[in-house]
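Re: the pair you flagged

First of the two:
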Amino acid sequence: MEVTGCSAAEPYALRVLGDLMEPEFEHGCIIVVDPEGVVRDGSFVVAYHNDEFWFRQLHIDGDRYLLKCLNHAYDEVVEIPGIDAIHGVVTQKAGKRRKDHKRYD
């Protein structure tokens, strides 16, 4: 029996851990990530940097790609080498209640 996984181009779900992306994304909420989503300034992305996957908001400043937290308690800004470090764009969020569900373009 052959076991197959998701295609690299298929959307996948992740659980948000921690409070770095609050208030928009609370600890424990589920996000849907599209590996083929359109990357733009202000997009919420999953990027690979320093041997880790990071979920942050992307800011494009000229030819610089910066990952920022939403929680103002953290002032960490990480520069990634470019668009190739981005593994997907967040397209949906599911919270504990239906009113917490949201889509992102």
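Second of the two:
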Amino acid sequence: MVAFAAFARTAAALAPRAAVVLGSGLGGAAAAFVERAAVPFGAVPGLVPPSVHGHGGTLAVGEWSGMPALLFRGRVHFYEGHPWEVVTGTVRTAAELGARRLVLTNAAGGINPALAPGSLMAIQGHLKLLGPAAWRGLAAGDGPVRPYAARLIEVMGAHERTGGRELLAGLYAALTGPSYETPAEIRALAACGADAVGMSTALEAEAAAALGLEVAAVSCVTNKAAGIGETALDHAEVLTNAALAVDRLGALLGALIRAPY
């Protein structure tokens, strides 16, 4: 782990207080990030390389909008065959390297009619529908009820209003995947109040909050959920539509990194 030891020394010198996790196809949102050092996930204790296209699989440290930050280019998912300890490895790594704020991003399907492809949604709560294994991640009674920091949701809303936009704060449904949901499942999720659906984020948010990190999360809506849109769902569409929002997302992430700690 020589490569990671050198990376950790660079990170210690920069002292990042924020960490960002970029979801599927969202690498372009880090255009303002100035990299000082990087290491592949496989060289980091507790992390494994992602197998999904659109997840770079590197951990970098540098400056974002002049603020020191950690950047995880991609993540791993339950559907790749990993236990919760591996899925949340980025969270523990961020905390061990000094981060006190975790900003999560994901590509999601839009359930709320107001969320067209290319839209952003601040996550204010989630439905964790990831199966029994996901519930073993935290000891009984330790699970944070509200992992998403209300203060940071307000920061995101204020930032968007400066650009003349309103940012929906909504409910994210986290499912195991890797298959997309059926129209019937989407109707059930809508009845439960879900605004967007994806296959990540919920466990990371809970693990981060349990470690005392301040958490913000943003969904980039890359497609209409099954039965709502008129086109067939595929991962290529996710990556294409993610590119529509990366500039706006990058500016929003900068605002979150700069917000007072």
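The domain at 2-258 is CATH 3.40.50.1580 (Rossmann fold).

-B.
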